[in-house]
C-alpha cells in the first residue's frame, strides 16, 4: 500500500505541474481594481544587492524570526547550519549568494530587475537566460519580460504581478540531498520526500504544496507527505517584506510580498492541498491488491485520471487567463469571479498561523467536488477554449475566486508604511 501511494505521488508530481500556471495573469486581474480606481503607488526600482548592503545588520534577525516560527510549526524542519547564516560582515561581492543560502533557496537565482509585461507592451526585452536557470523554460517562452533600471519608478502593481510568478523560475530547485547539488548536501532538508529528483521542475514540489487534511491512514502509510515547506517560505518572505517596508525599500517590500503570495496562491489550488481527491483509502488498497495478482489496469487508470484532471485545470486556466487579458473580456464569468470585490469576495487576513485552517482547508474541501465535476465534463486534455457559459468556467471561477480573496486579504494586511 505504501508503495502504491508512493507510485501515485511520484508519477503525478513528475508531470510539469505548477499549481496556477499563470500567477502573473491572475494577479493582474486581481489588482485591476485593488486601489479602488486610483493608480497604484509608484516605487523606485532597487537591486537586491543594494537592499542587502543597506540592511545587512537586520537581515539575519528577520530570517531568525521566520526560522524560530517554522521550527515550532514544522517538526520535519531542521535548523539552518550556522555556516549558512547571513552576516553583516559578508563581503559586498558575496552578499546576494550569502542571502540566498541563508534563506535556503537556489543560490543561482538571478533576481533580475524586470517586469513581466501583462498585458504585452513595448520595451527592452529581457532574455530568459537572464531570468532563470531552468533548462526547460516551458511556457515562459510565451511571455514578455522587460528590463528595468535601478532608480527607475514603477507601479507597485507591476512589481506584484511580476513577483507572484517568480518563485516558479528556479527559487526552490535542487534543494534536497538527492538533488545532485552542493547546497542540497548542506541545507538540511533531507532527501526529496516526493516527486522525482531527476526531473528539474519536480524538485520544487514540496515547497509549493501542503497536505494537512489527508485521512490518518494515508499519513500513516505515507508519512513523507507531511514534509512540505510552503508555510516556511511564506513566513520568510513576509518577514522580509515587512523589513523592506519598515526601512524604506518599498520596491523590495512589494517584491518579497509577491514571492510570499505565490505560495499562498499555490495552496488555493485543490490539487496542491489534496493528494488523491475522491480516492478513498479503501479504494486505494483495493486497486493495489488487484494489481498484486496481475490486474494493473485499475491502478494505471487511477494514475491517469488523477494526473489528467490536474493537468487539464492548469492548462485550461493558463490559456484562458491569457485570452481574457488580451481581449479585455472583463465580463467573462471567470474574470468576474476573480475581480469580484463584493462581500462574498472579501475576508480578513488571519495570519500565517491560520493558513492551514482557512486557505488549505478550503482548497482541500473544494478538491472532491471540483474533481468530480471535471470528470463529468469528459475533457481528457486541454485543446480549445469554450464559450463563456461552458461549465468548466463555473468550476474554474469558483476556485479562482478563492485565490483572489486570499490574495486581496494578504495585500490589505501589508504594512507598507
UniProtKB/TrEMBL annotation:
Gene3D superfamilies linked to this entry: P1 Nuclease (1.10.575.10)
Domain of life assignment: Bacteria
Family annotation (InterPro entries): PLipase_C/P1_nuclease_dom_sf
One GO molecular-function entry: hydrolase activity, acting on ester bonds
Protein name stated in the entry: Phospholipase
Organism: Leptospira perdikensis
Upper taxonomic lineage: Bacteria, Pseudomonadati, Spirochaetota, Spirochaetia, Leptospirales
